[in-house]
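Methods: holo model generation. Sequences were used as deposited, without trimming of termini or removal of tags, and paired with ligand SMILES retrieved from the corresponding compound records. Each pair was processed once, and we did not select among multiple samples. The sequence and zinc ion SMILES for this entry were:
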Amino acid sequence: MIRNTTLSLFIAFALGACAQKQTSADNNTASGSASGQNTIEKIEKSESEWKAILSPEVYHIMREQGTERAFTGPYVDNHEAGIYLCAACQLPLFDAATKFESGTGWPSFYAPINDQNVGEHTDSSYGMVRTEVVCNRCEGHLGHVFDDGPKPTGLRFCINGNALQFEHE
Ligand SMILES: [Zn+2]
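and the model returned the structure below.
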């Protein structure tokens, strides 16, 4: 009973948060493919299909919610202008303009490229409640988002470099 009440409160909060986000849902994006649409057409593949496409390390991170060791993935020190795409389906996810030095050893951003392409799920693994960040097209795991980021959002998207693919501007 207590669990149900908690869940209801969570859903109510989540719906409220979504409602507040509506004003920013129409911002322009570099992709252009999602303009005028609120939902992205999903890419669905079997785990064996993903395994055939992705390297073992990328497969582990994106399909098994893995985490690369700090400072071992690509793009931690990349300061070039451009767009970071999903390593699995190449959907634009982050603009290099929002990348900042977090000192964590993982590429860090203070905002996603838009609200449609990047999704969030509650992650209760390892005895912690964290917010998982996923690609909204292929549901690939990207990393987690925390609320200790810099201005203007105060968010820190802590992303596995192996889940990203950089495209120069
Ligand atoms: Zn993707």
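The chain is about 20% helix and 25% strand.
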